[in-house]
Amino acid sequence: MDSVTSPSEDTKSNSPEIETSALEPVKAPNGSTSTPAPLKASEKMAQPPEITSGGSYALHLSSNKSKKSAEQEWAELKNAFPREMKGLKLQLKAVDISGKGTFYRVLGSAYETKTLAAKACEKFKQKKQYCVAVKL
C-alpha cells in the first residue's frame, strides 16, 4: 500500500532553505564608507506642472468629428498617458471649420499660465502625441 504524506510534511521535505543576510555598506576604493549625499535640485524627478480648477489655459490634444469620438479619444489618452493626464479635466470645444464642418477639440484643463501648459505639452510631444497650449 502506498504511503500518503500530509501537505505540511510534503512541503517541509521539498522546500529549499533560503539564506538571507543584511546588505553590506559599499566601500570606496580607499576603504572608507559613506552615506550618499542628497540629490541636487537638478537631479530630482521632475514634477508635473500644477493643474488648477480655475486656470485660463489648456492642452489641445486632438480634434474629432463627433462629440462621442472626442470622448472616446479622451479615454484612450488617459490609458496611453496616465502620468501626463493625471489631474486634467476634459473640456470639449466645438469649432466650425469652413468647408469641413464642426470638430470637437479635446482639451485637458486647466493651467494658470501658458508657460505651464506649454511645459506640460512637451511631455506629450516627447511621446509623439500632438499637443498645443491654448487659451480657454
Entry keywords:
136 residues; four-stranded antiparallel sheet; 4 helices; elongated; alpha+beta; 4 strands
How big is the Rg?
A: 27 Å
Q: Give the total of beta strands.
A: 4
Q: Give the CA-based shape.
A: elongated
Strand content: 15-25%
- The N- to C-terminal Cα distance equals 83 Å
Secondary-structure element order, as H and E? HEHHEEHE
Q: Class by helix and strand content? A: alpha+beta
Continuous helix count: 4
Strand line-up across the major sheet: 2-3-1-4
Largest sheet entry: 4 strands, antiparallel
Helix content: 25-40%
Mean pLDDT reading: 79
Q: Which spans have pLDDT < 50 for at least 5 consecutive residues?
A: 5-13, 42-47
Topology, please?
Blueprint: H1 7-14, E1 57-64, H2 67-80, H3 82-85, E2 89-97, E3 101-111, H4 114-126, E4 132-135
Antiparallel strand pairs: 1-3, 1-4, 2-3
Describe the 3D structure.
This protein is α+β, with helices and mostly antiparallel strands and 136 residues long. It has 4 helices and 4 strands; from the N terminus they run H-E-H-H-E-E-H-E. Strands 2-3-1-4 form a 4-stranded antiparallel sheet. The N and C termini lie far apart (83 Å). 17% of the residues are buried.
